[in-house]
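Protocol step 4 of 6: structure prediction from sequence.
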Amino acid sequence: MVAVPVLTQRECEALVAAALRDAADNCLELGRNSACYGYSRVDAAFADAVPEDFFVHPADRTDLEPLVKLQTGALDLTTDEWGVALLNVQANLPDTLPGQAVTFVLLGDTSLQDATAARAAKNFQPIPVTTTVNTNFRSGPGLNYNVVMIAEQNEALLADGVSPDGKWLRVIHDNAPGWIHYTLVKSDGDLSTLPPVDDTQYSPMQAFYLTTGLGQAACKEAPDVLLIQGPQDYEITLSVNGAILEMGSTVLFRTVEDKGQSALEITVLDGRVTLAPDANNPRPVIIPEGTRSIACLDTSGDNPLVACRWSEPRTSLSANWCGLEAFPADLLHYPIHAHCNGATPLIQVSNPITPVSSDILAESAREGNSLTTNPSVLSAVSSVSNPIECAGFALLRGGETMLSQYEWSAVAVADQYKLNLYGADGQIVASRWFPAGTTSVTLNIADFATGGSFQWEMEALHNQRTLCYTPRSSVMQRPGNPNAPVTQQVFTASCAYTSFAPYNISVSWANGDNGDVVTISATDTSFVTYSTLGFGSGDTIFINGGAFAFTQITVNTSTGKSVTLSGC
């Protein structure tokens, strides 16, 4: 066995400080969609042949477009090398915010391989547009997104993208991105040339495969890790080893060994991470600030892929991260808080990825985690920066009889609730949506084929994103035929004119489901579509139009029911 030299703490601190200081100097003012050779040693692979002296010295830079793989070197005690590389990644940040980028810092034995299947076109100029009326500025491309501000009539904006259906423009207003309907602006440019913007188009290195050193580092001050920090108060989307996630704002990624198997570890230093559902995780997984979670990796193929459920978030963070608090300010958007020296994380309760059980609590006790010992009084886990908003979100009653009242506590910032009903096999058999202010509903379990038992939970949402879940209810037995066919009345809709020129209509629907979110769209003879939302199994909504008659009205519910009317 070869003895590995061990540096003293002071020598480690000096080496790391020198490396980071030089990396900050070498990579100052790095442009967006670029990579920088920060400190020796950094290896890179490109899509095409490059000159012998390309990207081989500290301070060398390259565009991300041709970069295929980046590898920083582990600490070498004989040469005082410790690889540091810096990337500025666009991710899902709009082109019209050129000063903003997502910072990637590769430290030590860390490998990053681009997994972008198709690069989104970036070589285009935003198109100036002018609002024709006072215009709602929404957080997403649709009437189901909230209005964040009003753009006044004749306001000049820049449009840099269009929704996949071509009806919404992404624009910048007061240095913030948002969406307005294309009918509410005028432009001398050709808006059809704008690139579509959706969640499937990744910029270079927005999707990647990561591996880091699995062995013990020679000194804890020189970790092998990928640090990612986005602009504050802005969530970014990434694909990491096949896992799709939204993060804000400072997160560490590394591969570790867990029970003899390679695993991906995510540690949230600031903000939160929300992982999208997949084959192994049937609903979103939330990793709060000050916690870490791991999932096993399948390493049998060309690239490691997340292949199992994410663990319960743990509050015991590695001491290796404490040194990151001295990170040079020039490399980051804002300082790092590594939750060292006994700092208390924001959230210390169970994550909603699995029902809380005595087995989980026992494992948590063995791990030394700070979980409550009574699963019946667990609060919901928050996915927002202020966990107080979700404190106390819980099930109050429901499911005691076939027909019963289901009640839950309120979340102040929620604009929608969702009731999830699980069958005997543990899978969701139905979901029902409810508007803000609703904290109870009457349900007949006979309307759902659950099998011999069922459970239920509540989900609180804001702007179509999950804020928090309650724990699931206890398992409840169901009397009668558990798989009886559900008999439902036919969903109907109708409309009538309430005035002419301007044309205003009323749209009514009936026989929907309790808690339905109903989208009503009405298109007039000038091909302008007006849309609005309603709630419940039946109601009447009024649509104020313009100088043209309505020729087609569609009524769609969140549970899949739909009616199309040829006119009123």
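Step 5 (inspection) to follow. Residues 9-26 form the longest helix (18 residues).
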